[in-house]
Design goal:
The chain has 217 residues and is an all-alpha fold. The protein has 2 domains: 20-83, Arc Repressor Mutant, subunit A (Orthogonal Bundle); 99-217. It has 9 helices and no strands. It has helices spanning 13-48, 55-61, 66-73, 76-98, 108-117, 119-131, 140-163, 173-193, 200-215. It is elongated and about 70 Å long.
């Protein structure tokens, strides 16, 4: 009785298989290239601002031509949107994690440490916010919502501290949340302007000590 044989693959399928593998390789390389461009854009935008950075300069940084870079993003404005979206996606959860398992206003020193560990991103957001003050600017609405979210999160954390008996019940968490965010962001600006003169973690730590004396029942 003849031995069973395994049918040979259809030779016509081989080019299709190779084409599929080539497509996946190109896609992987394309994604890696996009990440490289975004990383370089973060550094340049943080140092020189969006308006002060040219596509030609960015292309030179990553070893590409001007048209080659625009192939991945289309326009400089689209690249800016991608930079912000990519960093928001990766940093948001990490930021919430810096507050600790049970977020509290008394954990603000941990947030300061988070900011110091990501100094380039902190500078990026500060520079971009300054460039987008007018309602018609491309990221104006983004930063309005970002700061609104920060104030809301501070109020939420303070309300939770009140519910747990960690903060006096007579305090207005709406007003206090706004004041806390303004203080932290103001200190962050001073640190970014002159990091040798401001130890952000230490200064915020002392601020937290003062809050603890004032807010604790």
């Amino acid at each position: 009785m003849p031995e069973p044989t395994t049918a040979a693959p259809d030779a016509r399928s081989r080019p299709r298989a190779r084409a599929g593998a080539d497509d996946r390789t190109r896609q992987t390389r394309g994604e890696a290239r996009r990440e490289q461009i975004i990383a370089a854009a973060v550094e340049l935008f943080a140092a020189k601002g969006f308006r002060g950075t040219s596509i030609a300069e960015l292309a030179d940084r990553v070893g590409m031509t001007h048209p080659g870079l625009l192939y991945y993003f289309g326009t400089k404005e689209r690249l800016l949107e991608e930079v912000v979206a990519a960093r928001e996606a990766t940093e948001h959860e990490a930021y919430l994690g810096s507050l600790g398992e049970h977020a509290s206003v008394f954990h603000l020193d941990q947030v300061a440490r988070f900011v110091v560990d990501r100094a380039v991103l902190a500078r990026l957001y500060l520079v971009l916010a300054a460039e987008n003050l007018d309602p018609g600017d491309p990221l104006h609405d983004f930063f309005v919502e970002r700061y609104r979210y920060a104030r809301g999160l501070a109020r939420e954390v303070l309300a939770q501290d009140q519910a747990l008996g960690l903060v006096r019940a007579d305090l207005d968490v709406e007003q206090l949340g706004t004041e806390v965010i303004a203080t932290i962001m103001g200190l962050e600006v001073q640190w970014l302007m002159d990091p040798t003169a401001i130890d952000l973690v230490a200064v915020v730590g002392r601020y937290v000590d003062g809050l603890r004396e004032w807010l604790t029942p």
